[in-house]
Amino acid sequence: MSRYPVFLISMVVTLGLFAAPTFDEHFLDETMRIDYFHIGDSQEEIVTVDRIYRQGTWAGSVTQLEDTFDNGRYYVKVYDEAGTTLLYSRGFDSYFGEYQTTEEAGKGIKRTYHESALIPFPRHKVLVTLESRETKTKILHRIFQSVIDPDAYTVNRDPLLDGVTVFPVHVSGDPHVKVDIAVVAEGYTAGEAAKVKKDLDRFRETLFSMEPYKSQTKDFNILGVFFPSAQSGCDEPSYGSYRATAVGTTFDSLGSERYLLTEDNRALRDIAAHVPYDTLFIMVNSDRYGGGGIYNFYCTFTSDNQWFPYLLLHEFGHSFSGLADEYYTSSTAYNEFYPKGVEPTEPNITALLDPAHVKWSHLVKPGTPIPTPWEKTEFDAMDTAYQKIRQEINETLARMKREGAPEGEIQAVKEKSERLSRENAEKADQFLASSKYVGVVGAYEGAGYSSEGLYRSEIDCLMFTKGAKPFCAACEEAVRRVIAHYTK
User: Fold this and answer.
1) Which positions ≥6 away from 454 have C-beta within 8 Å?
2) Are the C-beta atoms of 313 and 451 separated by less than 8 Å?
3) Distance CA 389, CA 27 (A)
4) Start-to-end C-alpha separation, the chain
5) Fewest C-beta in 10 Å: which of 73, 118, 170, 407?
6) What is the number of H-type helices and E-type strands within the chain?
7) H-assigned helices in 326-472
8) Going by C-beta distance under 8 Å and a sequence separation of 6 or more, which residues neighbour residue 484?
């Protein structure tokens, strides 16, 4: 007779029936890429499948299959065919999600964006869903679902794109227990392969110069992916300049002159498919200041601007860890990106709806006032004045470019713009470093494109102002959590 009570045996059997799904039980060590069209305006969104691909090695964890961060405007979820057991999930943001917040979308103008969801390749039929987060309540609602048969003849099994070169920039080991970064080199011609390699080496050095990446280099794999462009650079529509490039990156995205994105998602994913990746960079061959980062989607940065390190690290904060912008004086294309009175999902900003329980309260020392006072009025006056000058210079430069002004005159304006940018950043650093509360974790008003009603955790941070500076405590903690998710 067993020495264990019958009810305990029953409990063990019952719990076993609800054991978490295992990777090998439900998935192959390959990638399913689901391409789809995301269509709509501020009030409506429609998703339709474009193509489904069977591609290379799965990059993600084989033990951490559920995303529990509760971050991002969207979630892709994979269930068994009956829809009763969750097998895999991942939160993300998208280009379409950003478009929804623009004035154009608010007028009911519908646009179509091409997007991709990467999931481990299923062994059997699965139910794949997309959920969208309601703006006011932050509740996720299903906007798409489809049963996908991995054995269907419609699943594309074409060979990968020819002519792609892979550079092993930093390889630490098994992709299932590493953060796998793909860096797609954009706007480099075939004759610029040596520059690609040089810029990739600088990418590695820059990423690992900062915590928490510096102390966790062994947790990363970095692979460069290069498909030659017909021309160097990228599109600059407000300058009247257009270039034929591999993935079609362009400044002036969503009407913001410095926002650098691509809408040619299929071309981007076809190139990136040559390597396993958890997170995706687009390194753009340009000396102009610009970039962008969309959570679990992709991020961009320019290779030759004086702010290269800042752009790389700041935009990676968005795309890898879902960090929000903490600045609020610069103009953006968004219309109420963070609705008033609603707590943001991002880990580094808060609406402070419950001051006694701020989301990073475990980092706040007893006695720190919440909200935390700082020299906001003086800072706002200083930075707002600079933003006005910067806008005027940008408009002048764009006009000169379009009208074909002499190159020497254009270069003089560019140099003036870069000098003023550097001087303003140094002035901001000195001002913030002199604050009474410098280095103190609290709740400082001004964040997420809003001067009032949103708060950040420290006076300064890489997500707040330009320059060589660390993350604030809340940001660094969030980044470490994401690294752990991929490396367990």
Assistant:
1) 328, 338, 344, 349, 350, 351, 445, 446, 447, 448
2) no
3) 55
4) 40
5) 407
6) 10, 17
7) 376-403, 407-433
8) none
